Amino acid sequence: GINNLGQIVGDTLSENGQGRRGFIRDANGNFEEFDIPSPGGFQVNDINDLGRIVGGVSASGNNACDTFLREPNGGLQYFNVLSTRCETAYGINDHGIVSGTDGYLAFVLDTADGSYDIVEFPGATQTQFFGINNLGQIVGEIDNKGVLYSNGKYTGNFNYPAASLTWFFDINDQGTIAGTYQMNGGQHGFV
After folding, report:
1. CA–CA separation, 178 and 2 (whole Å)
2. What is the pTM of this model?
3. What is the strand order of the sheet 127-132 is part of?
4. pLDDT in single tens digits along all 191 residues of the chain
């Protein structure tokens, strides 16, 4: 993930290859590494302009099972929105609203009070939320077609022409969407 201050977050294998390390790269190219306590690994996905980081942690294996929120001071909060499934947070806006998925259902979480909504598109086998902007617009995919979710409503079910799948991964405050589509065996990015 990247924020408007040029901070980039992600995760990588540790130097000895025996675990993962989270990182923050600032706009000047300086790196800070951090850990998220988890016996099974973790995944770092996004950072907002306040320096709050989200992702998922696993109890075992490589699948993320709980959503985590890492504060700029290193403090951690864990959320389990979909208590019977493995979930991952993919986006956080400056208001502390988090978007995520377990691969089948999407969720929107308010980190201020822990309230959440579980979102499932009627008739879909898969609804996933990824990026969220400061206007509360969320992008993702429904059954391999890109979708915009805003104010409790879905806008379109977009598919890049002749593509076998189209996923929307992020949206900025101007409404520009970045995503990926698959065509002729290759994966391609778009804005």
Report:
1. 13
2. 0.90
3. 127-132, 138-142, 145-150, 153-158
4. 999 999 999 998 877 666 788 999 999 999 999 988 887 788 999 999 999 999 998 865 555 478 899 999 999 998 888 766 788 999 999 999 999 998 789 999 999 998 999 988 888 999 999 999 999 999 999 999 999 999 888 887 788 888 999 999 999 999 999 999 999 889 999 88
